[in-house]
Amino acid sequence: MRSFGNCPSKVSLIGALAMLAAAGGCHRDPTGTDAAALAHLETGGQRIAAGTSAAERHAQLTKRAWWNQPDIIDALQLTGEQRTRMDALLRRWSEAQSAVRQQHRDAQLALKKALAAADWTAARAAATTAGQSLSAQWTSQAELKIDVLAMLNPAQRDTVSSRYRYLLHQTSVLTRAGRPRTRAGARPAAAP
To answer: Where are the chain's structural domains?
Structure first.
């Protein structure tokens, strides 16, 4: 195995993809499962309760989308039409991810069974499928970000580049609840 990026530990390619997808950098999902990393990725680190309806899930996701944050709406002078179209992209993306997440869960289960049975051929095939599903998840997240940013006019793109540069660098289009960023994109210092 080899190290990836700035991550100090040695990880597999699948683990590296999960870490990159989950946090855009060196992050290990506390549960240690790639399926959990996929859920973590979609929700920007916030867990959505099991049994939540699709409408509630979408409402929770759109509430945390960067284009629905009051300071960004004001700074970019986002129109209601832009935000509605961005919300629709997020909804379609979220709905499409259920098949990818299920494919990944199935591959993880097949991998565990193949390893337990010492079926190395099946284990390799399952590992490949698991890696492909993580790659598909990351790619679709990047495409969502690109599609959303493409809806901005030149002045709005300039504002994002100058005041909200972190939006260009973070993997997710979702913000972390209760964790605002400063103008430079760094987390503000904790109050004494």
So the answer is: 50-169
